[in-house]
Amino acid sequence: MVAELQGAIIAAGSGERLRKAAGGIPKPLVEIAGDTMLSRQSRALLGAGAGSVVAVINSETARLIDERRAPVPRELSLIVRDTANSMESLFALGEKLTSGLFLLTTVDAMIPPHEFMRFKDEAIARIEAKGASRADAAIGVTRWRGDKRPLFAKVTKDGLIAQLGAGEAPLVTAGIYMLPTRIFQLAGDARHSGLDALRRFLALLIEREFAIGAIEIAGAIDVDEAPDLEAARRAIEENK
After folding, report:
1. Cα separation of 234 and 232, whole Å?
2. What DSSP character marks residue 160?
3. Which structural domain range is residue 109 located in?
4. Could you tell me if residue 92 is inside a domain?
5. Backbone angles phi, psi at 112, to 5 degrees
6. With CB atoms 3.0 to 4.6 Å apart as the test, which of 130, 150, 164, 195 could cross-link to 190 if both were Cys?
């Protein structure tokens, strides 16, 4: 059985593509239906069963949280660090996580609550399974709808991810992951190899024969640009 689940959020990017539509503020503090994306994602993780949540944010976001006295859930701990890339943001989170599994999201992955919970349950089931269906980790995938800069995922008939980012495919990653903390043992190798993004680190895990299950989810919206923001707001209204 999995011990208390930990939640983690990558939220240290600058979100340049969304800034103009969001009044110039960093992505974690953009509001959707009256709640910041950082707080909304924190509560999504808590609602899915995480006992605590840690997020990595940059110094600009931290300053604005202080200046605006922006509320954050009391179960959320913040790491303030101007990381070089998303892989380094992941490694910063690893410094605060205890040994075991953690449910990770990017701050801009808006996923319906029931799909969030289903991903968590199916991911743990895959990790605890025996035989061919067992996985070491799991990644949420969704159907590609023409989003810019997607991470394509090629999936085997056994439901495992065979390749990430190796050419166009029907499925793309959805910004939600169930990972074991032992992945951080490869941090040194990743840095030595010059990797500079979360997607490249995930590809390294596959190269090192981590079995990563693909769990398809519906209704995921990657909020990168103004149309995505409007789509997320509409989805929340429709799911009330």
Report:
1. 5
2. B
3. 6-238
4. yes
5. -55, 140
6. 195
